[in-house]
């Protein structure tokens, strides 16, 4: 999924950076709690805005009925983002080193 950068509407993070900066061991990172869709878009006007500028999907034909399931799936991923990312194998790396 891209994000809007002035003059570069299809920019991706990979286009702007070479890696990550870690400010603590991977085991200490915690996910975030996503605001429930019912709170974020409590009425039809707000829901239409979310559909038009969906933070979780670039699909142009996403139906309002599909948004709650997408929202919940993304919330679960963000709550445990370490486990759902390519660096999940780094969790407990200290124990793996000690076993060698």
Note down, in words, how this protein is organized.
The chain is mostly helical and 100 residues long. The protein has one domain (20-98). It is 36% helix and 7% strand. It contains 5 helices and 2 strands, in the order ββααααα. It has helices spanning 13-16, 37-40, 44-52, 67-79, 93-98, and strands at residues 3-5, 8-11. Strands 1-2 form a two-stranded antiparallel sheet. The model has no long low-confidence stretch (mean pLDDT 82).
Distance between the termini: 39 Å
Question: How many separate domains?
Answer: 1
C-alpha Rg (nearest Å):
18 Å
The overall average pLDDT, rounded, is 82
The description of the largest β-sheet is: 2 strands, antiparallel
Number of helices: 5
Outline the low-pLDDT stretches: none
Shape: extended
Strand content: 5-15%
What percent of the residues sit in helical stretches (DSSP H or I)? 25-40%
- DSSP strand tally: 2
Tell me the structural class: mainly alpha
Series of secondary-structure elements, N-terminal to C-terminal? EEHHHHH
Q: Can you list the strand order of the major beta sheet?
A: 1-2
Quick tags:
single chain; 100 residues; mainly alpha; two-stranded antiparallel sheet; 36% helix; extended
Short description:
Helices cover 36% and strands 7% of the residues. It contains five helices and two strands; from the N terminus they run E-E-H-H-H-H-H.
